[in-house]
Amino acid sequence: xxxAASALPPxxxxxxxxxxxxxNLLECRVCFERYGLGGQRRPRNLPCGHVLCRGCVEALGxxxxxxxxxxxxxxxxxxxxxxxxxxLLQLLELLEVLGPAGGSVPSAFGRSGSGAAxxxxxxxxxxxxxxxWGSLVNPTGVAACRRSGRLAVAHDGKKRIHVFGPSGFCLQxxxxxxxxxxxxxxxxxxxVTLDGHVVVTDVGDRSVKAFDFEGRGVLAVQEGxxxxxxxxxxxxxxxxxxxxxxxALYRLTADFKMGKLKKCQRIRSQLTSPRGxxxxxxxxxxxxxxxxxxxxxxxxxTRVKIFSAEMDLIRQMDSFxxxxxxxxxxxxxAVAFDKEDRIIVTDVCSRAVICLGKPEEFPIFNxxxxxxxxxxxxxTYMANDSxxxxxxxxxxxxxxxx
Length: 402
Fold this sequence. Notes:
Elements: H1 17-26, E1 43-45, E2 51-53, H2 54-61, E3 68-69, E4 76-77, E5 83-84, H3 86-98, E6 125-131, E7 141-144, E8 151-154, E9 159-164, E10 170-176, E11 187-192, E12 197-202, E13 207-212, E14 217-221, E15 228-233, E16 239-243, E17 248-255, E18 260-268, E19 274-279, E20 286-292, E21 301-307, E22 313-318, H4 319-325, E23 335-337, E24 343-347, E25 352-357, E26 366-369, E27 376-381, E28 387-391, E29 396-401
Antiparallel strand pairs: 1-2, 1-5, 3-4, 6-29, 7-8, 8-9, 9-10, 11-12, 12-13, 13-14, 15-16, 16-17, 17-18, 19-20, 20-21, 21-22, 23-24, 24-25, 25-26, 27-28, 28-29
């Protein structure tokens, strides 16, 4: 059987592959209850990397709640060593935003809930699809090496980073799941520097870790981060990093070849849960996606903030403001600049990728991809200007070109 099927109860064995993946993603594999944002169903990471609901963690720990054994790999740990499974919580938040219709919300682009649609307005066509359940498990970040055309993907597999070559073959897997210095506990995002280093945010130990393309760990940075989330590399191979819990933006300067951190500078404070971030290779402008919490169900929203290279706020607009301009509520999880310096975002409400224009003309509304996506959570551009979308719904990377 497939990796997905082996985790399913017998009653689910006849389900379609995409349903299997969703079942694995949204249900505790011990009690088969659906995860929730709070209470006993809240998803928790064990140190070994397996995920259970809080109720099962407490039940396995017994009345003394001293030690528990992972039901899958038998590794022992204490309840205090468990932590919230943030990517799953983010997905649950999103599903709450989408409401009872879930992923079947008809989009503003004239697509019915069945998924039928015409061609993308920009003329972008799907050229290649990589990964899929079993190859990638709950992927959270994607980045491209502009020089070599290689793609790095962060996901929840035994080896956390997969590197794909331009032809689509997996060239390398590295970043063992574990507690050693160069292991990766729980990656959230990944970027690739121009000098060929793969840099990852690891929420498991609140660090930023850098590797070469052979998978050798060259640097681990722990500078008092609370929840390092999104990151992007500048043309000078500096790293721009969001700390979602601290509400801050950092710039990391390092000699990756020598494995030395030179400077870790907080360049912006008082942001609201910043997650996705992108740096323009043309102007140096920085775009940040903030996640806003509102009172009442289904009211969570996102805000796009644009800063100049000198960190002056140029423009900002939240979901409500964008909704006044555009025909759909935009809930964005990822952002990128294209080679023309236009801002591109994912929209998980309409399962689309949208161009918001250049910083000076923001916001315009130009849907680039309006069909064929189920949960677009990552974006990057390759050197040949192909657009790469990470689709968490079917655990795949989709590459589009005109």
